[in-house]
Write a structure and sequence with these properties.
The complex is a heterodimer of chains A (332) and B (430). Chain A has 332 residues and is an alpha/beta fold. Helix content of chain A is 34%, strand content 13%. With 430 residues, chain B is α/β, with parallel strands linked by helices. In chain B, the strands form three sheets. In chain B, strands 1, 2, 3, 4, 5, 16, 17 and 18 form an eight-stranded mixed beta sheet that branches. In chain B, helix 4 crosses helix 7. The longest helix of chain B has 17 residues. Chain B starts with a strand and ends with a strand. The chains are: A alpha/beta (332), B alpha/beta (430). Chains A and B meet through helix 4 of A and helix 6 of B.
Chain lengths: 332, 430
């Protein structure tokens, strides 16, 4: 497992394309475990992982927990609301106390950008960033990429529109990094008030969603993050939906086989119309399954474990991955 | 302790007297007694300054000594010792203590502490408004009489143009400069750094440069309206520098200071340090274009002083998530070395110009004694060794604060002796 030479996963920005490919390939290989009747391999037996979540999260946390269980790691999840955080303990003190229990990894979700870097500087455990403020959410970008690669067979040359609240979105930042590094053509779209300054250095920005969606292979919709907003960034949900929402009419401007992604949770009727969210081009639920596979890959690559899925007690089943997702040959 | 000191053989740089030459300086009873080519005086303690630069004592217009109230961060004793170690003979103490220095009782407390345990001169700055709440004016008459040299609500901008106008107007009665932390709060809200591409990549909330320059423009127009004295604290943006330049050109009574960190670092430092909170201060580190413009404003005379905005914090205040960390960095013990190494070294400033920015020009901005070694002046002297190379080691600071972005930097040029009122208060082993 030398394809991923880092101790932590803090963001996509610092990764090489080959390292991204390693993670995706590993995830692809591990995905099949999830379709077995007995979904458990002993790869990380004896390893301890702490999921430290300072922000509410349903799918990311569940996804990490499932990945840890499938790989037989011992894990515990701490939600900030249920811990000593409310008693005023600092992030560092909490982390140090957890570290006294010698975990091999801490998965951190935190509302402050840079929180994962902060822990990486002060802790011995491997740190996985499960979302830090508006900075990065690397495993989300990886699972999005895995989904795209499965469906399109490649990332290189794909035209991907990222539409919505770019200002507050860590998912957008991680995806922009990942897709550009892998040679996709990214177009960004948001009202000017939700475009962070300087982002156009990474990808072109348009304020017309029709332009962004035109000819797209995939559209990634971003959630309007009302909880992070102070003051009015746009006049009303109504106007937002009319001008910047993804409707069926707009989807028609994209390629016929366009894929619609959303990191969830969705504001139906605001950034995305329900018909689109539930439509045939939506891979939103595929993303969830791939999320587990990507997190298994990250756990395995960072913790080394006793090896890959080949070391599993039960050899991989001789059948293709189930469901609507066609299996894709691993990159050689 | 001898009250008679003869500094022999040094290079005297005293911009106020237009001297940059080998001169001896005789200090007697706390005053400069004589300056001459070959002085001698029986009974004088002779200090061999051969190979060293003798300057009027450096004055820092902007420090936070934290006492009263946050003695865990700094005290008047430790802060002034840091000043002495850094080559400063006088510091102006900002009023954002707890309680705020908005009345003569606090001012006198600070001066008492400075007299009994301070290593250098302390000039208190009083508050612009009571409690620095930005509403009612503090009692400037009392503040002036008890020893304040300026008024400021530093750390908090004066949000109301009406209050700022009254402050500039009323302070004229006492000839006090009004020092504003220029920042439009509605544009700054919850920012952790400068707004721009770096903040975007880091996912941190940024404050635009305009948050500063809008208020600088406003204040300059108010100073023009009222004929008041305005001093712009820690100027950090190209637009603000330009506003000051234009204001001065049309005769507005405005002065400005800049910090070493805004002269030398940009917001890229936040990224390069992986969110290290020692890069977090307010105003934040700006873009490279802003940094260059501020250096240029220093070179062309728009900016009057280099001030540190020395802001000591405890480790606990800084060792948290970047967004949660306290604003501010220490500066007293790094400023002179940084300016010598990074501004004079590469030829951006001449040595006499740097000395002026640290002595006579800040003295004039606030109407302070000193700033020159002309006979009769206070015997406050800073001695520099331009060849001394020193590594910045925060663990060895005299200040209680260790929060500097310059730890580990190697700097050529240092203050090696500090004399206040004719007494050596700091001396570096050679």
């Amino acid at each position: 497992m030398s394809g991923y030479p880092h101790r932590h996963l803090l963001g996509i920005e610092s990764l090489q394309p080959s390292e991204i490919v390693t993670i995706l390939d590993t995830a692809e290989g591990l995905r099949e475990i999830l379709d077995r009747p007995l979904k458990k391999v002993p790869a990380l037996r004896g390893k301890t992982v702490v999921n430290l979540f300072y922000e509410s999260s349903t799918r990311t946390r569940a996804s990490f927990e499932v990945a840890e269980k499938v790989l037989s790691a011992d894990s515990l999840s701490i939600a900030a609301a249920a811990s000593s955080v409310q008693k005023g303990e600092t992030l560092l003190d909490t982390a140090k106390n957890l570290e006294a229990m010698n975990p091999d990894m801490i998965v951190l979700r935190h509302s402050a950008a840079g929180a994962a870097h902060f822990l990486a500087r002060h802790c011995r455990a491997a740190i996985v960033n499960a979302g830090d403020g508006a900075h990065e959410h690397p495993t989300q970008a990886l699972l999005d990429a895995l989904t795209l690669r499965q469906r399109k067979g490649r990332l290189q040359g794909l035209r991907v529109a990222i539409v919505g609240d770019l200002l507050h979105s860590r998912v957008a930042r991680s995806n922009i990094w990942l897709l550009s590094k892998m040679g996709a053509k990214v177009v960004l779209c948001a009202p000017p008030t939700l475009v962070p300054p300087g982002i156009d250095a990474l990808a072109p920005v348009t304020h017309r969603i029709d332009e962004a969606v035109e000819g797209a292979d995939a559209v990634m919709m971003l959630r309007i993050q009302r909880e992070r907003m102070t003051g009015a960034y746009y006049p009303s949900d109504r106007e937002y939906h009319l001008r910047f929402g993804l409707t069926e009419a707009r989807v028609k401007k994209a390629k016929k086989d366009v894929l619609i992604l959303h990191p969830g949770p969705m504001n139906r009727g605001v950034e995305i119309a329900s018909e689109v969210a539930d439509g045939p081009y939506s891979v939103i639920l595929d993303q969830v399954t791939n999320g587990v596979a990507v997190r298994m890959a990250v756990l395995l690559l960072l913790l080394g474990g006793s090896g890959g899925p080949g070391d599993a007690e039960h050899p991989p089943a001789q059948r293709a991955s189930a469901g609507s997702t066609p299996a894709r040959a691993k990159d050689s | 302790m001898s009250l008679l000191i003869l500094l022999k053989g040094g290079r005297l740089v005293d911009p106020a007297q237009r001297i940059d030459a080998r001169r001896d300086v005789l200090l007697e009873d706390g005053r400069v007694a004589a300056v001459g080519a070959k002085l001698s005086r029986r009974g004088a303690q002779v200090i061999d300054a051969d190979g060293l630069v003798v300057c009027p004592g450096f004055i820092d217009l902007h420090v936070h000594l934290r006492e009263p109230g946050r003695e865990d961060k700094e005290t008047i004793a430790t802060g002034t010792r840091a000043a002495a170690a850094g080559g400063f003979t006088a510091v102006c103490a900002m009023p954002n203590t707890s309680p705020v220095n908005d009345n003569s009782g606090i001012t006198r407390f600070i001066l008492d502490k400075a007299r009994s345990g301070g290593a250098v001169r302390v000039y208190p700055i009083g508050a612009i408004t009571r409690g620095s709440r930005g509403e009612e004016l503090a009692e400037y008459g009392d503040l002036k009489d008890s020893g304040c040299v300026a008024v400021s609500d530093d750390g908090r901008p004066v949000a109301s143009a009406r209050v700022m106008r009254r402050a500039l107007e009323y302070a004229r009665a006492f000839d006090l400069p009004v020092v504003d932390h220029c920042e439009e709060p509605a544009l700054f809200e919850r920012a952790a750094m400068n707004e721009g591409p770096v903040a975007t990549l880091l996912g941190l909330r940024g404050a635009p440069a305009a948050a500063e320059s809008i208020v600088v423009e406003r204040d300059i127009q108010l100073a023009e309206l009222t004929a008041g004295r305005l001093h712009v604290a820690h100027l950090s943006t190209a637009a603000a520098a330009d506003a000051v330049r234009r204001g001065k050109a049309r005769g507005v009574r405005v002065t400005a200071e800049v910090t070493p960190h805004h002269l030398l670092l940009t917001d890229q430092a936040v990224k390069d340090s992986d969110y290290d909170a020692s890069t977090k201060m307010n105003p934040p580190l700006r873009s490279e274009a802003d940094r260059r413009a501020v250096v240029e404003a220093l070179r062309d005379g728009t900016i009057d002083a280099i001030a540190t905005d020395h802001a000591p914090h405890t480790v606990d205040d800084k060792k948290v998530e970047y967004e949660e960390a306290a604003f501010g960095v220490v500066g007293l013990e790094t400023a002179v070395g940084l300016c010598l190494d990074r501004l004079v070294g590469p030829g951006l400033l001449t040595l006499p110009h740097l000395v002026a920015l640290l002595s006579i020009r800040p003295a004039r901005a606030f109407g302070l004694p000193g700033g020159t070694l002309a006979p009769g002046s206070p015997a406050d002297v800073t001695v520099l060794d331009l060849d001394r190379t020193r590594k910045v080691e925060p663990a060895r600071f005299q200040s209680k604060g260790r929060n500097t972005p310059f730890g580990g930097w190697t700097l050529k040029g240092a203050a090696v002796m500090t004399i206040v009122a004719g007494q050596v208060v700091w001396q570096e082993r050679r």
